[in-house]
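Minutes, project check-in

Agenda point 3 was the complex the collaborators sent over. CS summarized: four entities, 442 residues total, and the question is how they sit relative to each other. Sequences were read into the notes so everyone works from the same version.
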Amino acid sequence: MTDSLSPPEDAGVDPEREAATKGAVFVAAERLFALEGFQNVSVRDITAAAGVNLASVNYHFGSKDALLFEIFRRRTAELNRERARMLHMASDRHDGRPPVREILAALFEPPLRWSNPAHDRRISVQFIIRARSEGTEAMREVLRTDVSHLRRFADALIAALPSLAAEEIYWRLHFALGMIHNNRFAEFDRLHVLSDGVTRESDVGALLKRMIDFAEAGFLA
Amino acid sequence: MTDSLSPPEDAGVDPEREAATKGAVFVAAERLFALEGFQNVSVRDITAAAGVNLASVNYHFGSKDALLFEIFRRRTAELNRERARMLHMASDRHDGRPPVREILAALFEPPLRWSNPAHDRRISVQFIIRARSEGTEAMREVLRTDVSHLRRFADALIAALPSLAAEEIYWRLHFALGMIHNNRFAEFDRLHVLSDGVTRESDVGALLKRMIDFAEAGFLA
DNA sequence: AGTCAAGTCGAACGAGGGTTTGAAACACCC
DNA sequence: GGGTGTTTCAAACCCTCGTTCGACTTGACT
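CS then shared the predicted structure for the full assembly.
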């Protein structure tokens, strides 16, 4: 959409390869928004962190809200694509009817894999989670109405659990999603305090297994 | 804490019975914050909705943030008190070692009962949920460090599940809490769209049972 | 009636915010 | 090398917001 402005026209999904300033703004904004919250970050904060001029945000993105929305669209698209890919592969492995456990893995693994401390997109995951509660009206409109991606998962779960009413599936899917959305830095901090340091957020592999175990049991109950 | 300012000194927890203006501000602010988000509501919005003068917020509460914090403290205290009461009753019924299901009921039922559309505190629940992601630094400090209330539940669960490592309990408690925090109006809207209107948020009794069933299965897995 | 503290009111202050502007710098092509 | 379109820059604009101020009203007590 905004690519018509950038001369190199890389036509790619890689933000860092765009016009240098635009990419720097994108990256700095995502980081600050994810760490500090949307309303707590000013355009001046972003441009200062990116080392570019104040007017860059409005020139390259139109407005602060449009910048936010563009980050949101790109990151959610990437996440949904990865989830759909995993679900599709699981479907292929099981003649179109994957078991609950693999459906949940397709739902949980992408955001959790990205949450690895060594991973670049750790910040993207926090951004997406934040968008869910602090997003602008435009973002919330998308989140509320665009459920096509979730429908694939709901349908797969309905097929995997034929004895369960569809209404039940929807509610349990809602619960499972809540488990993901709660994976904010602040919540990990609290858990760390509560458990006296026993829980280690860094071991995302173990966390993924725990989440799948918990949710699978809930679905099979 | 702020009672020293109100002449009638009702010494109660009922906000509406304070000095008329202060109570009106409290109620209007809670409602607006819960519905619109903390940063999207100005002091002018609050005082206009309450039908009082602009300066009332600073006169009665000190600052906008202090008003937010006072609402937060009162509502979380009420919620924690109710949860502790239910946990205590369950403990009495089972010689100090209540089963998982009753512990979860003590955790889930208070906020869900208050979420009933007919209930006054429906708005308070949404306020508390919002505080978790959009709260001020002071609120997040409390949420991060004051885990004494959760510890009671963690201990009860550890006692109820002696074969499970404490680390596992903490993680599963984290998941269960995520299920609650996801009960925002916006999330219910999305679920409603996804299920084509099958799911009914209004039936909180059925929702409570579904949540307990799901979480109990996860703990017993 | 007089006094004093508490509360209310309209008005203004000052800071911080997003956005706009117009000129300068740059890159590219004929 | 001139011309053209794009990008960068410093500065300013303009609005909203939280807060404060000083005067006025109210009510209780002496």
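Noted in discussion: Residues 1-17 of chain A have pLDDT under 50 and may be disordered.
Follow-up: revisit at the next meeting once the mutant set is ready.
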